[in-house]
Amino acid sequence: MPKSLRNVLCIVGARPNYMKVAPIHAALAASGSFRPVLIHTGQHYDTEMNDAFFRELGLPAPDLNLEVGSGSHAVQTAEVMRRFEPIVDQTANPVVLVVGDVNSTLACALVAVKKSIPVLHVEAGLRSGDRTMPEEINRILTDQMSDMLFTTERSALDNLIREGIAAARVHFVGNVMIDSLRANLPRAVPPTQTLAVHGFAQPPAFAVATLHRPANVDDPDILRRLLESLHAIGQSLPVILPLHPRTKGRVQAAGLDHFLDGCAILPLRPASYLTMLGLMAQARLVLTDSGGIQEETTALGVPCLTLRDNTERPVTISEGTNTLVGRDPDAILTAARNILETGGKRGRIPEFWDGRASDRIVATMIQAL
Ligand code: UD1
């Protein structure tokens, strides 16, 4: 009798999960050793946060959508757990594969570990050292519960060992997000097309910015200072700003819409994956509080200013094109001017950010499971 294939429950919940799971799902399906089962928790549900990404990444429709929607952290996490548990119970021979650091990652890992089902965490060991970030709590707890921890950069192993995790459980495989980037870059949407859809002509040069972290957008004063900074940069070259739903809501609530004037700042609806790749690849400069964009700009060789005081992805600074600037308007403007004058950091591509990380994950799984 051939051994029955293990069902790998691949969890996606929020936008940054899709580009990580897409190449892993494809590699699992091609392996002949595993059956990938795609579970969407429904943490993100807007078409612009969701459907377009699936289409562009070639991800099949989820086998199941738990439709949890938005809520407080406690409610959202608890709802995912409540709805995921029966799925695990009904699945023969399961393992649970989670990626990144969103609430769905933590919730599904917690359900599985209590049932002694193997938990695999992709993008393990990243630490900002900032426990006020919900993602940092999700990272620490998910890693503690995981049987196999796949890391994107070497510093992650030191973080995990410091937290008492056995090195034998940790596998340095590289960055699956860069697997997606390399596979999809040739299909990126040209910025002219993106801007035309929003009624803007393409300027000769532009910057791209994204903002969505609660620490940056929930306090009206901090949000105003950040928008003022982008607006000031926009006097030199327009800043394209795709707006996350949270950010859009906060800008409106704080009465800051006037900054989105269509001249210095060009506001867009949330950008799809291929749209964002196209914008980043041609930007002179990217300003962001996203984790993934710090990595993508490093892979693209485009200078990035991170509008935070810390990063969980230090290799993007030590080897890549990233610089931490925080939220101080003077620091942001000085750093931006420096990049516009000098071209900024060129960086190099970190080890194993070569488009083969998913293959390494599946090869490791075949050996271990
Ligand atoms: C989540 C992740 C964050 C990730 C981000 C990417 C956690 C703790 N945070 O944050 O790590 O970087 O996704 O986008 O898991 N909303 C919509 N439509 C949607 C989803 C959300 O309008 O499809 C609105 C919600 O109503 C809420 C806000 O956006 O007002 C926040 O959404 P939520 O999923 O709670 O967290 P994110 O801020 O997106």
TrEMBL record:
It is an enzyme of class 5 (isomerase). Keywords: Isomerase. The keyword Isomerase applies. It holds the Pfam family Epimerase_2. InterPro entries: UDP_GlcNAc_Epimerase_2_dom (IPR003331), WecB-like (IPR029767). Gene3D superfamilies: Glycogen Phosphorylase B (3.40.50.2000). SUPFAM superfamilies: UDP-Glycosyltransferase/glycogen phosphorylase. Its EC number is 5.1.3.14. Belongs to the UDP-N-acetylglucosamine 2-epimerase family. This is UDP-N-acetylglucosamine 2-epimerase (Non-hydrolyzing). It comes from Magnetospirillum sulfuroxidans.
